[in-house]
Write a structure and sequence with these properties.
Elements (H helix, E strand, L loop, with lengths): L1 H17 L4 H17 L6 H5 L3
Length: about 55
Amino acid sequence: MKETFLMFAEVWDFMRVRKKWWLAPIMTLLILLGMLLFLTQGSAFAPFIYTLF
């Protein structure tokens, strides 16, 4: 779990130092989609989610 927070801290530092703020919405969208797929993996909503992709 500590490694995960370290990775997010490194990405945040990269964006802050190099002024790559356009990466923030992309990263947020990827994280939200990953969470959506993870949470609906075994549910009845899975066939509907997978049709979006």
